[in-house]
Structure formats: structure tokens, C-alpha cells
Design goal:
The structure is a single chain. The chain is mostly helical. Helices cover 58% and strands 0% of the residues. The protein is built from 18 helices and no strands. α9 packs across α14, α15 crosses α17 and α15 crosses α18. The protein is globular. The mean pLDDT is 93. GO terms for molecular function: triphosphoric monoester hydrolase activity. This is Deoxyguanosinetriphosphate triphosphohydrolase-like protein. It holds the Pfam family HD_assoc. InterPro entries: dGTPase (IPR006261), Diverse_Catalytic_Enzymes (IPR051094), dNTPase_2 (IPR023023), HD/PDEase_dom (IPR003607), HD_domain (IPR006674), PHydrolase_assoc_dom (IPR026875).
């Protein structure tokens, strides 16, 4: 859909009528006074940045583990890139940039060491105790596990920030929920019993741009890391028409360009094209539904910030290439198998002797808990580990630790 440049919000300083308003937000679970210098959404974002969970992202896997090299994305650098794209989208659409950035910064808090491998391993061992979901774990971190404030556990974020964290990928219940995930994780249900996040509605437009920014960031930067690793080649990119056209454009403008610069010129054009596509589609959707409030966005019955059909097909093609060429590559699968072994070993070791979780805040009480509650504490502890800490702990507890190189 064509982009209406005249409708962009650059430099206007005016928030759209359908944007989330930090000054009339829906509050926090534990009431607090307002700040004289920051909006509530600014305070949410700042609290997120100052957490231990945010700092731990620097040593958590995105695709390639830290041992593969210093230049590959980590979960932290990916998160920062997502936040940058989310903020750019929010500014163009005249949304609340702080809310969009905050949702982007917190969206991966619940990821385990070793990326999705660790999540899959915890899901397997916890299948009898409610399973493991990184989105639900993110909610547990910001509402319970971060223990910094005198008056409450967690960060006491606003309703809008928590809604964005839980529902940025769409409603969790009702006809618009993802049929592939019909069961709402129990931690989310438990929190909603105290502070209803309205799981059957869509999230704010700020949360929606954070979600699509995640897709744009990893589609682009996983290609970059894939080229750096050698698992991808420029010839492989030629198989996707959209990428082939970008490469043709760069070659025509900069013949003979060295590989590193050539890659960057492709990636920056990819991000720009995807961002502009989302803005154009969102503008068209907004003209259709004519929302007069953030609530109208939630009740629209569809996602507003999304790809056009043509870009959605490109998105699918890129994801298939990344899955085939990188995520399921034999070398990567070997490392994933060894990483999963570390997570499973740690889970069983901690279930057998909880005191081996030497820094767990509830270490004196865990042994006496029922099996499901103990398992959840163990999952909390393992999910909070960085790659490096998980490896070093495994070496402390076991005679042999699998090689992740």
C-alpha cells in the first residue's frame, strides 16, 4: 500500500488521537504518585532498562552463541535494534514513542540461555507442570521476580506496558487468538486475576509496532549474521526476488563494492522497505476504521500495523530461508542438542538438590515446596541464567560439559 508522506508525524510534536496517552493511562497494580519530569510510560521504559534482566540479555544467545564470535547479535543487541525500529515506526505514526520502545525493550526478558533451544528444553521438562513460555516468563520477571523496590515485587509497570508485553502478538483468547496456541499460560492467567489485561482484545498500536519491529529486525540481522558465519551466501539471497532486487540496486550504484559494505547496503534498504511498507499499510487501515481512541484500536478486530500481502510473502520466504539454511543447519543443530543437554541436566540437578541454586532468593524454602511449585522456581532460576553462567554452573555440577563450539 502506498505510503502517505504528508501524514507522517516527523517534527509535528502532536500525538495522534488513537495513540496511548501516558497522562490518562489505566494505572498500575500498586498505585504510585506521578513524576514531575517524566511521563508514566517514560518511567516504565527507564525501569525496564535498569533491571538485572535487561543486563543479562548481553550474554544470551540470539542465533549464534557467544563462543562463535564477538560480532554476532546477542539477545541484548537484537533488543536494542528492535527498540530503534519500534521507535521509528511510532514517531512516523504519531504514537507514544516511549511506550513502543518500552514494549520492545522488555519483549525478550523471558528468554532462556541458548535462545529458543533453552526454551524448548524447559518446555519439555516442565510439560507436567504447566510448561514454559518465554512471553509468560517475561511477565513473571516484571511483576514478580525483579526484586528492587521497597513497596512491591517486580517493576509495577503501567497497564498499557503489561498489556503490550502480553498481547503484542495478538489476543490470547477469543476468535482472534492464535489457534496454534490455544492454552493461555498459567502465569498470565494468574496475573490477570489480579490486574485484568483483557486478553481477548488486540493491544495498543504502540505494542503492535513493537511486534512488527521484532520481525523486521531479526529478518534483516539474521541474514547479516548468516552471511558473516558462512551459512548464507549472496547466491542464496538471489533466490528471494525482493532481496535479489535490492542486490541489483546496490551493484548498479556501487559496482565492485567490498562484501561487508555490500551487505550493509542491502540490509539498510531491507529495513527501510519493510518499515515503509508497514507504515503504508497502517495508514490505510487507520483510514478504514477511523479510530478516535486507543480503545478503538484494541476493538478493531484486526492488526493495524502489519505487512502488505506482497511484503508478507517476502517475510515468509526469508523465514523459510533462515530456517533451512541457518536454524536447521547440521552444525547449528549439533550445538542446539548440546545446549539442550545442559539445560535439562541443570533442571534435574536443581530439582534433586535445590540448594545448588546458590543465588536463588527463596533457597531456604524451595526444598519443602510441592513438585509443581518447586519446578516453577527451578525454571525461573534457569531461565534467568546467561549462556556463560549456565555453562559454568554445569561445569561445577557435572564431570563433563558438552562442547558448544
Amino acid at each position: 500500500m502506498a505510503l502517505d508522506k504528508d501524514a507522517l508525524g516527523f517534527g509535528t510534536g502532536q500525538r495522534a488521537i488513537f495513540a496511548s496517552d501516558p497522562w490518562t493511562n489505566r494505572g498500575r497494580l500498586h498505585p504510585e504518585g506521578t513524576s514531575t519530569t517524566r511521563s508514566d510510560f517514560q518511567r516504565d521504559r527507564d525501569r525496564i532498562v535498569h533491571t538485572t534482566a535487561f543486563r543479562r540479555l548481553k550474554h544470551k544467545t540470539q542465533v549464534f552463541i557467544a563462543a562463535d564470535g564477538d560480532h554476532y547479535r546477542t539477545r541484548l543487541t537484537h533488543t536494542i535494534e528492535v527498540a530503534q525500529i519500534a521507535r521509528a515506526l511510532a514517531r512516523a505514526m504519531r504514537l507514544d514513542e516511549d511506550l513502543a520502545e518500552g514494549v520492545a525493550l522488555v519483549h525478550d526478558f523471558g528468554h532462556t540461555p541458548f535462545g529458543h533451544t533453552g526454551e524448548d528444553a524447559l518446555q519439555d521438562v516442565l510439560s507436567a507442570h504447566g510448561g514454559f513460555d518465554h512471553n509468560a516468563q517475561s511477565l513473571r520477571i516484571v511483576t514478580k521476580l525483579e526484586r528492587r523496590y521497597a513497596e512491591f515485587d517486580g517493576l509495577n509497570l503501567t497497564w498499557e506496558s503489561l498489556e503490550g508485553l502480553v498481547k503484542h502478538n495478538g489476543p490470547l483468547t477469543g476468535p482472534a487468538a492464535d489457534p496454534l496456541h490455544p492454552v493461555v499460560p498459567q502465569p498470565i492467567l494468574d496475573y490477570c486475576a489480579l490486574h485484568d489485561l483483557e486478553l481477548g482484545t488486540f493491544a495498543s498500536l504502540e505494542a503492535q509496532v513493537a511486534a512488527i519491529a521484532d520481525d523486521i529486525a531479526y529478518n534483516t540481522h539474521d541474514i547479516d549474521d548468516g552471511l558473516r558465519s558462512g551459512y548464507l551466501t549472496f547466491d542464496m539471497l538471489e533466490e528471494i526476488p525482493f532481496l535479489a532486487s535490492l542486490m541489483q540496486e546496490v551493484r548498479a550504484k556501487y559496482p565492485g563494492l567490498e562484501a561487508a559494505r555490500f551487505t550493509h547496503e542491502i540490509m539498510r534498504r531491507q529495513i527501510t522497505a519493510m518499515v515503509e511498507d508497514v507504515i503504508g499499510v497502517a495508514q490505510g487501515n487507520l483510514r478504514d476504521i477511523r479510530p478516535e481512541s486507543a480503545t478503538d484500536i484494541r476493538m478493531a478486530g484486526r492488526v493495524i500495523a502489519t505487512f502488505s500481502p506482497e511484503m508478507a510473502e517476502t517475510d515468509r520466504q526469508i523465514k523459510r530461508m533462515l530456517m533451512t539454511r541457518i536454524y536447521r543447519h547440521a552444525d547449528v543443530m549439533r550445538v542446539r542438542e548440546n545446549a539442550a543437554r545442559i539445560v535439562v541436566d541443570l533442571y534435574h540437578a536443581f530439582m534433586a538438590e535445590p540448594r545448588e541454586m546458590q543465588t536463588h532468593y527463596w533457597i531456604d524454602q524451595i526444598a519443602g515446596l510441592a513438585e509443581p511449585a518447586k519446578a516453577r522456581h527451578v525454571a525461573d532460576y534457569i531461565a534467568g541464567m546467561t549462556d556463560t553462567y549456565a555453562i559454568s554452573t554445569h561445569r561445577r555440577l557435572f564431570d563433563h560439559t558438552p562442547d558448544l563450539r
